[in-house]
């Protein structure tokens, strides 16, 4: 990975300030030196490289967006480029980081009390405490807003949680898990911070995944899990609050999709210049150039979309449908680019040696999580027509 991205055809990176670009280049160097060399190894073993957590912490970028953490607040543009860069190196590690800093820390920052924010966000920004976000359930994905089955029952100063969660990233080793449950008294969805090791809380690693294999997704069982009132997020009063967090983090997934596209395109481009058939590099063939141009077109259009999305966020004029469109569009284009890159590498595209196989598989997970294409389409469709097609 070079300091100048060959896939950034319109040089969007130049929109960053000099200081922001220094931060990005520092992260890029860490990813190049520490993450990329071991990504395939850990992906193949379906293990998480815990030894890298300190390196991520030393970058000093975790949780910069929150007032309780030290350092200057980053622009949405820088935050997006960082998410893109992480996914360009390894979508599994980008997902780990996004769950921790976006979903878990974001839930506490948006819905926690001042005391909770001061108690948890600083150590989470130092990555001394790792967070997870438990919303999806075995029987509830896209319909979780209306079908959330996990319950919360108050007994004095304690809440009793019962139910199950599925696909919860980081949950096997996270110190804090934000659990969303329906209050049996008022039927509203509320948020609770559950510490790892709490009696009645069990997290079991999901095996046999074909995507994001380094991410430690878990099945969680909550069986009479008792959480003190002081660990309930007081500003999480309905699913509307949960959805607001997802709306903010959804844009990060769009940026991750651009990162996967960049990686796939760059791998394909280098391969096309080096691989020879019929006595010349395959990049000299018209059909191969056509594939590469379609790839860089997808990267450029998607990068332009998320850059504008970040500008809207920084200007305070962003709406949920903006991130919904970006997530739906960019992940669809990501699938195309990854597939074309795999096609260009032919048989070499299905082995980890050339990296692209990992990105093809991981793209499938990014395409689905944080709202499927169909659900995000309905969010945008409601915004442009004023009519809801949700059932």
Automatic annotation (TrEMBL):
Q: Which SUPFAM superfamilies match?
A: Acyl-CoA dehydrogenase C-terminal domain-like (SSF47203), Acyl-CoA dehydrogenase NM domain-like (SSF56645)
Which coenzymes or cofactors are required?
FAD
Ranges where the Acyl-CoA dehydrogenase/oxidase C-terminal domain occurs? 244-384
Q: Which Pfam families match?
A: Acyl-CoA_dh_1, Acyl-CoA_dh_M, Acyl-CoA_dh_N
Q: Record's InterPro entries?
A: ACX4-like, Acyl-CoA_DH_CS, Acyl-CoA_Oxase/DH_mid-dom, Acyl-CoA_Oxase/DH_mid-dom_sf, AcylCo_DH-like_C, AcylCo_DH/oxidase_C, AcylCoA_DH/ox_N, AcylCoA_DH/ox_N_sf
List the PROSITE patterns: ACYL_COA_DH_1
Record domain Acyl-CoA dehydrogenase/oxidase N-terminal: where: 17-128
Q: What's the superkingdom here?
A: Bacteria
Keyword Flavoprotein appears in the UniProt entry: yes
Q: Extract one GO molecular function annotation from the record.
A: flavin adenine dinucleotide binding
Where in the numbering of this chain does the Acyl-CoA oxidase/dehydrogenase middle domain appear? 132-225
Biological process terms from the Gene Ontology for this record are: fatty acid beta-oxidation
Keyword list, A-Z: FAD, Flavoprotein, Oxidoreductase
Tell me its family: Belongs to the acyl-CoA dehydrogenase family.
Which PANTHER family does the record associate with it? ACYL-COA DEHYDROGENASE, ACYL-COENZYME A OXIDASE
| Protein name as it appears in the record | Glutaryl-CoA dehydrogenase
Please name the source species. Answer: Thermomonospora echinospora
